[in-house]
Amino acid sequence: MGAPAGSSGGRSLVEVSPGILAVEGLPAVVVEESRTLIIADVHLGYEDAMARTGVFLPRLQLRKAIRVLSDALASLPWPARVVINGDLKHVFERLTRQEKAEIARLARWLSTDSRVKEAILVRGNHDTFVAPLLGDLGIDLVEDCLEVGSGIVAAHGHKRPSCTFETAIIGHEHPSIQVDVGGARVRLPVMLDVPLKGGQRVLVLPALGAYQTGRVVTLERSEYMSPLIREDGLVGEAEVWVVDREAGTMRLGELRYVLPL
């Protein structure tokens, strides 16, 4: 486990990449330089989308998003800018009733919490039809990438960002590893710190959504969805960090040594 880089009475902060701290046990990172808290892949509206296919799930996505944000903000010694790094909503082809209602509820929570300086959505591939709604709710929308520190940008990851960067913080991949526990297969979310051929790095966040359990990571570069990793990632050298609410944030080492577990 990485040594705590700092805390304020909440969860510890662990450095997972230069200038970037993970909030212990949560799918969230902090860039101290700009006092920015970053999460990704909330996928509000997922339960309603699944109900339309005949699969009925408890509505957990919004509840988990607020809990994670609240716990992360409680771990910081100062109010933070909150960046949702793509896929705030789930359905591609429209803005559903559940999405609209839950985005509004999340926006109200963000606007009334004194620990939040501002809220920004970096558009992901699922974030269709949201611009007018976000404007009304006071959430800024960034179309491509957002500078969050010296050489550090936030971009969803479904396309190459137009910003130059030394480190890009992305989502989109929903990375996880699969382990055997007592004869059962368990999937655990992970962060990946991936070096690129050109010398930059990509830090991949786990999905925040309660039902986005993740795609199992592999050493096959062609299996990754983000073009940054698929085309340029040195995936065998990627640092793997398991993220578990109870166990914390644990460094496992380079992916080439982690697989197979």
What are its keywords?
6 helices, Purple Acid Phosphatase, chain A, domain 2, alpha/beta, eight-stranded mixed beta sheet, 261 residues, nine-stranded mixed beta sheet, 17 strands, 32% strand, globular, disordered N terminus
Low-confidence stretches: 1-7
Reading off the top of the CATH hierarchy, the class is best stated as Alpha Beta
Question: What is the N-to-C order of secondary-structure elements (H for helix, E for strand)?
Answer: EEEEEHHEHEHEEEEEEEEHEEH
What oligomeric state best describes the polypeptide chains here? single chain
Average pLDDT value?
94
Broad structural category: alpha/beta
Summed up, the domain count is 1
* CA-atom Rg in angstroms: 17 Å
The profile of the biggest β sheet is: 9 strands, mixed
CATH topology: Purple Acid Phosphatase, chain A, domain 2
Count of individual beta strands: 17
Fraction of residues in β-strands: 25-35%
Q: What is the CA–CA distance across the termini?
A: 17 Å
What is the general shape?
globular
The CATH architecture: 4-Layer Sandwich
What share of residues is helical?
10-25%
User: Total helix count?
Assistant: 6
Explain what you see.
- By secondary structure, the protein is an alpha/beta fold.
- It has a single domain (4-258), classed as Purple Acid Phosphatase, chain A, domain 2 (4-Layer Sandwich), CATH 3.60.21.
- 20% of the residues lie in helices and 32% in strands.
- It is built from 6 helices and 17 strands.
- It has helices at 46-51, 61-74, 97-112, 131-137, 227-232, 255-258; strands spanning 4-6, 13-17, 20-23, 29-31, 36-39, 80-84, 116-122, 140-142, 146-149, 152-154, 167-170, 175-181, 184-195, 201-204, 215-216, 239-244, 248-254.
- The strands form 2 sheets. Strands 9, 10, 11, 12, 13, 14, 15, 16 and 17 form a 9-stranded mixed sheet that branches. Strands 1-2-3-4-5-6-7-8 form an 8-stranded mixed sheet.
- The longest helix is centred in the middle third of the chain and has 16 residues, at 97-112.
- The two termini are 17 Å apart.
